[in-house]
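Can you give me the bound-state structure? Components:
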Amino acid sequence: MNLSGTKRKFKKRYDRLPTVLLFILPALIPLVVFWIYPICRSIYLSFTNWDFISPTYKIVGFKNYLSLFKNPRFFEALWHTVVFTAGTLIPTIVLGLVLALLLVRSFRGSGILKFILFSPWITPTVAISIVWTWIFKADGGIANTILTALGASPLKWISSSDTAMLSVIIVTVWKSLGYAMIFYLSALEKVPGELYEAGALDGANKVQQFFDITLPSISPTTFFLMIITMVNSLQAYDQIQVLTQGGPSGSTRTLLYMYYQLGFQEFNMGQATAVAVIMILLTVALSVLQFKASEKWVHY
Amino acid sequence: MAEIILKNITKEYENGFQAVKNVNLEIGDNEFVILVGPSGCGKSTTLRMIAGLEDISDGDLLIDGERMNDVAPQNRNIAMVFQNYALYPHMSVYQNIAYSLKIQKVPKAEIDKRVHEVAKSLGLEELLDRRPGQLSGGQKQRVAMGRAIIRHPKVFLMDEPLSNLDAKLRGQMRVEIADLYQRLNTTFIYVTHDQTEAMTLGTRIVVMRDGEIQQIDSPANLFNFPCNKFVAGFIGTPAMNFFDVTCEEENGEVILRTNGGKIRMNAEKTQKLKAGGWIGKKLLAGIRPEHVVVADSPEKTVFSGKVSVYELLGSNAIVYSDTDAGRIIMNTSQLEEHTHDSDIRLGVMEERIHIFDPETERTVTN
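Here's the bound-state model for the whole set.
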């Protein structure tokens, strides 16, 4: 009696499964094929010594991870990743907001200006980077021409390990600025004008109104942009490949570029995927940290 | 406490539209003045010019004798309660109320003391840690008032503060505002399009239309002695009945003849109509629904027709009738039911009749 009751319950619970699967499979199949399986496969590969070419490989346990943690090149790449992420994130957010504040009030030509500022975001990074290699040319490049005209000494830009990271950061910020500006423009337009009027009557000057009304009101946008810019910075590859190929002397080698070099130049896919797994963990950890911190400063 | 004078105040926008036209108004110390009128009449713009949130195109704004046209809002010692409350959504109730004092760099202990005093007076003590998003409409309204009160301003400006509340809460908050006015004993300027708020709260009411002041008077005078058809129709619910009449002299007395009867004029109105040369001319008459009665004899019948709608409101009833003078509304305390399409004969309280020039629409007997 009890057994048949349990069976009935089981049957009742699962007899709709085919219908449910029919609805979720179109979404589930690409997710599994292009996302879940590759991640699981990468994690698996990070415990092997696969060289990317041979059909066979061995399980080596945590050897790849231990080798990485003993490798100064890994920590150098990790530091470059931190510098690159912070170096792109802060100026993108700050300058994006400044541009949005300047353009939030419409004036003649403001629409065209917004489009021009946004256009780098929709231009392929490779194309942008090629143009910037000309701009950064030590001899006759526009950047040095401007510096010289301003009375400053010319720089070696992407040819020197002192300035290569700065150059890559400039290109990345320039590309992302318009994107941040568009989001901030939309956020600024949604701040109710009455809040500023109430602020003015409460005695707040423009600066106080900016910090006490504007910034808290647009904090969800700032948070969103911080997460997106951080993830984009961690995934930056195209501009590094075109501008510096991780050099000079590894000065622009980030973790992702190190992954590329280990996997596809040094044919050490085991270690390369270990770097990729560490990057995933790093991204998750940073995102969780930001979400935790956001509870204090993001106001929905 | 402050005296506010608006001298020939005009607000003209860049496209040439004049929202406020040559407004002159003197508001004395501790007055509760209501600016009332339909949407787009310029009442909110006038209030915002007093607050400093809108530039004054022409004229002078004086507060306590000092010209304020070019003084920044924060330096006018004015507090304002907005229609949508305009509470800072990211701040707690405490921070919202305390914000102006924080800006003034008042010591924290003093801020804390004053916030708690204000919160206590408005019943907000339990809500001080909450954010505006966690409050009901009435609570938000109280916080908005708390934010205004804490600064001890010279003038309170209120821009349709109750329009976002439901009817029951609106009634409750109206009483609270009246109570607040009694306690604070300062100047209030209150904008509304709700004439019930205007009639119950104001010591004086300013009726506006198309950027111009129509009449400034006490609630009772506005109701009883409107200066024109617009004011007569705007003040009072249901609105005043208007109908065409001919002014005639009959057996030595002046009467207003309607399609279905006549209205006798008292000595005062007779004298004014005669002096104005209205005998034999067409006029526009008005009678409030409260002053329409069921005619108990053919001689007292002014309108004859059929009942269209009967609305029982509890203590009174509204009867809408289609008569020979058009739609006539009666507001009566006699609650016998008038069925749809039944015949009805209506009379008026003759001494309560209002008479207007049909061309200028100005009253001819006030």
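A couple of observations. Chain A touches chain B at residues 192, 194-195, 197-205, 208, 212-213, 216-217, 219, 299 (CB under 8 Å). The mean pLDDT of chain A is 90.
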